[in-house]
Amino acid sequence: MKKSLIALAVLAASGAAMAQSSVTLYGVLDIGFGKVKDGKWGMNNGEGYAGTQDGFNSTSVIGFRGTEDLGGGLKANFNLQSGGLDLSTGGTSVAFSREAWVGLEGAGWGAIQLGRSSSIGAKVMGAYDFNGTSYSSAYDRAGISAVTWYGSSRRSSQLQYTSPNFGGVVVRAGFTAKGDEGGVQGIGVPDASKNRYSLGATFANGPLSVSAIAETKSAEGLRTAYAVGVSYDLSVVKLAATYNRRERDGDLTRNYNTFSAGGAAGSGGQLAGGKGWTLAAVAPFGPANVGVAYARNTEADIQALELFANYALSKRTRLYIDFAKGYDQNAITAVNANGRGLASANPYAVGVGVVHTF
């Protein structure tokens, strides 16, 4: 009897310890058919990225996230997320290049993350792109998406802070030391590199959401990027407008030949710099949503249009159709004498598919 009681006590203690810690496997799987102008319909075709076959609407990813209760309202969190899944072939390059961080969270003071994580721009301004950061995003096609400043929605070697919700206001801040902007362990860092700071805030109250974000330049020759956004939900339709100035100006010749996505000399990265505005609307029809977005890059003389619709089969599975028309910053073949991008060889693309999350 005594042995049984001891065994039960040990089991109960073990269960309590396990209840304080959890690890979750999660993922997003997107596959469908698509095409670009002059191209052929094919599975996971449709994106303008050379050599890339990924979901047209969402990036297919797999990841692990976990949390541990440290007591006193303090928690330890982590997230490891890998992209590079091609469902058309089953090919993958498992590297946690999308999320790779560890952090601490407290009920009274907010949360910090250390490592590679989504940028402040992506977290603050992503909500105003109603179809997400899909390939068809008019904001990204025009080169004025705050989500893809520096050619990426992620930041490496970042210290990031998120405040608690103060009456609808959430503040986010990020810092990357110039020693992490190049070189190895801070050795051989270009003289032009700078510490990078990000600061953003969102006020959300009922149907209204207002946000602002700024990110300082990571190197000489770039500039501070900033964006503001507002959305309002009228129930029958949700509207959004943003204004954005990227870290590069609209001179595509300089952008392509001098700066990569990270701001260093070398490859072109995402080519479109500039500044401009966007308008978007999305309307619910039961389990379906239909939307439109328009973006105008006034500095680089670029405009783009996006049409999209999706139908939820469940909370985790939906069908979609996305259409993008306009400039494709990943398919530039030349620039004219004024540094403006010539018309892309693929001025429109369309994708039809299914997204499953788990």
Automatic annotation (TrEMBL):
GO biological process assignments: monoatomic ion transmembrane transport
* CDD domains in alphabetical order: gram_neg_porins (cd00342)
Enumerate the GO terms in the molecular function aspect: porin activity
Domain (Porin) spans 7-325
This protein's GO cellular component annotations are:
cell outer membrane; pore complex
**What is the name listed in the Swiss-Prot or TrEMBL entry for this protein?**
Putative porin
Q: Where in the cell is it found?
A: Cell outer membrane
